[in-house]
Design brief:
Elements lengths: L4 E2 L3 E3 L5 E3 L7 E2 L10 E4 L2 E4 L4 E2 L1 E6 L13 E6 L13 H4 L13 E2 L2 H10 L4 E4 L8 H13 L3 E6 L5 H7 L5 E5 L5 H8 L5 H12 L4 E8 L7 H15 L5 E5 L14 H13 L5 E4 L9 E2 L6 E6 L2 E4 L2 E2 L2 E2 L12
Parallel strand pairs: 9-11, 11-12, 12-13, 13-14, 14-15, 15-16
Antiparallel strand pairs: 1-6, 2-3, 3-4, 5-6, 7-10, 8-9, 17-18, 18-19, 20-21
Length: about 350
């Protein structure tokens, strides 16, 4: 039987039902049942997390793999993930862990129990400068991530959420003081695209979370969009994302445009043409964004960081290999322009 840890952010209802208020789904859960994420279960009228310290994946990664290009470039981060998600993306690259419903299993999948305190030890042993909750959606792992982020901050490690941004305001405000970076996966810019891709009918809470992370809590925010042919590759959506980033987060906010490879429910679609990514990048630049990147096209010039003022090559990338060439104290060594590089 799954071990359990009482959840934060839920309301008790009549007849031993509970309402989970961690994310905008606000699942109303009868006794013995679980929410849509499959990781939070009503047991005798109380809501419990079934995944508190259960780690499905752990690795020391380059920070560029998240992807974060303007946050401690060249550093290593301890990446940890668990099971489940509050979205059901038909193209999920980590579906083996993200689509697991812990509450429906008689026997747990393979998982290692790692306490939040042990995370700090592992990070230091692996010469990592920070910890990232990633691989699946960290929001549903909230209690564990919250405790780990507090400990990491106290230990001088940076902290990262790699997230779909589908979280309510109170939980975000609770963990935000202990998060340094927020890597937000913005899947499109219409309710139609969000429903096709991940079965979410209203994407406005995602925008609200990204804006709050940046503007209220001063986190370092970078936006990632997996460009999926026929679903979110039209000019209207791409321009909408670019303008939202510029107006709500600031033109210095990096935007990563990632190539989609056919997978799962979308296996019938072609890989994203490089020309589509290049057009999308130009849309972002034309909208006034200073840093727009092309992802999963190794060796493309769109992986590199150039000074938006004098165009000098400042950070050269080949996949996850990074060479810092022209930065001086986070500014362009040639003209002094601010490049929005965060080193805490």
């Amino acid at each position: 039987m799954n071990e359990r840890f009482e959840a934060m952010f839920y309301n008790k209802l009549a007849s031993d039902k509970v309402e989970c208020v961690l994310c905008p789904l606000k699942c109303k859960i009868a006794k013995g049942q679980a929410g849509i994420c499959g990781a939070r279960k009503n047991i005798d009228g109380k809501l419990y997390s079934l995944i508190y310290d259960k780690v499905s994946s752990v690795a020391a990664d380059p920070i560029e793999k998240k992807p974060l290009f303007h946050f401690h470039p060249g550093s290593r981060v301890l990446s940890v993930g668990t099971y489940g998600c509050n979205m059901r993306c038909g193209h999920c690259q980590n579906w083996q862990i993200a689509h697991v419903n812990m509450a429906a299993l008689d026997k747990e999948p393979m998982a290692e129990k790692i306490s939040p305190h042990k995370l700090i030890t592992l990070a230091k042993e692996a010469n990592c400068q920070g910890i990232a909750w990633t691989y699946n959606e960290p929001t549903i792992w909230f209690e564990y991530a919250f405790e780990g982020a507090k400990l990491a901050s106290a230990a001088g490690l940076y902290t990262v959420f790699v997230t779909n941004g589908y979280i309510n305001q109170e939980p975000l405000d609770t963990i935000a003081p202990y998060l340094d970076a927020y890597c937000l996966d913005l899947k499109g810019f219409s309710d139609e695209a969000y429903y096709k891709l991940c079965k979410i009918r209203d994407f406005k809470p995602v925008l609200a979370a990204g804006e709050r992370a940046k503007n209220k809590w001063n986190m370092h925010v970078e936006i990632v969009t997996l460009v999926v042919p026929t679903i979110n590759d039209d000019e209207t959506q791409l321009k909408g994302i670019a303008e939202w980033i510029r107006e709500k987060l600031g033109p210095e906010t990096p935007w990563h445009l990632t190539r989609s490879i056919p997978y799962l429910e979308f296996a019938h679609l072609p890989p994203t043409p490089v020309s589509t990514l290049e057009k999308a990048r130009q849309i972002g630049l034309d909208a006034g964004l200073k840093f727009v990147y092309i992802g999963k096209v190794i060796g493309h010039a769109g992986e590199n960081t150039y000074c938006p003022k004098c165009q000098k090559l400042l950070i050269e990338r080949m996949g996850y290999q990074t060479e810092v060439k022209g930065l001086v104290s986070g500014k362009c060594g040639a003209c002094g322009a601010d490049i929005n590089i965060c080193t805490k």
